[in-house]
Amino acid sequence: xxxxxxxxxxxxxxxxxxxxxxxxxxxxxxxxxxxxxxxxxxxxxxxxxxxxxxxxxxxxxxxxxxxxxxxxxxxxxxxxxxxxxxxxxxxxxxxxxxxxxxxxxxxxxxxxxxxxxxxxxxxxxxxxxxxxxxxxxxxxxxxxxxxxxxxxxxxxxxxxxxxxxxxxxxxxxxxxxxxxxxxxxxxxxxxxxxxxxxxxxxxxxxxxxxxxxxxxxxxxxxxxxxxxxxxxxxxxxxxxxxxxxxxxxxxxxxxxxxxxxxxxxxxxxxxxx
Length: 273
Known about the structure:
Layout (H helix, E strand, L loop, with lengths): L2 E6 L20 H16 L7 E4 L1 H9 L12 H9 L4 E3 L12 E3 L2 E3 L3 H11 L4 E6 L9 E5 L3 E8 L2 H11 L5 E2 L13 E3 L2 E3 L6 H9 L2 E4 L2 E6 L4 E7 L7 E7 L8 H7 L1
Parallel strand pairs: 1-2, 1-6, 2-3, 6-8, 9-15
Antiparallel strand pairs: 4-5, 4-7, 7-8, 10-11, 12-13, 13-14, 14-15
């Protein structure tokens, strides 16, 4: 089981009636920069998650066509910026391992679509129903979530569509594979209120129950999965989660620290407080 995320951008020549044209970007480089910045946010917002990302090389090429005038403009060459972000290990071109079939009929609202990400994600979800799937919509299409794709006029496949960083974050809290699991580390205890000196090391306490910590873990954030943070409003303390290593159980342990703790990065404090 795994999580598979697909991405679509606007197109210079929309490949079907559901895709949006990017002609307004071709008129304003500032708007191009905003669009690319948002694209980067979509990619980086998921970096601490376990997933396989898929993009469509034809969609990327189509997006660039209207923007030829800006392609080498300093400081952010458009195509290079996209390539750098999609060259990360988590992202691959689905066309390199395409499973949709030219012998099948794919439709949305009874309108045929061909050779498209809509078809690919529907086919993959049909083939591996135990995986979790979502499609990131960077203003690329005008379909509401969930998108419903019909295969051969009888197999209807629904896929969630995510349009903001917040939606992506919330989707992962419910759809991670494997889920984040919390366990008690004896040195931090459970429902403990005081720091304790153990082997000449001052140990911070876990001030809540394991069940409460598990709930806070699901929405914890960080630069990478090895160390995550959340804010425990009930106790007015941050809670720090430490990854236990790459195991099937996806285990974390945790403990509380005060709001002025140097252990919590400033950007985390600004985001959570």
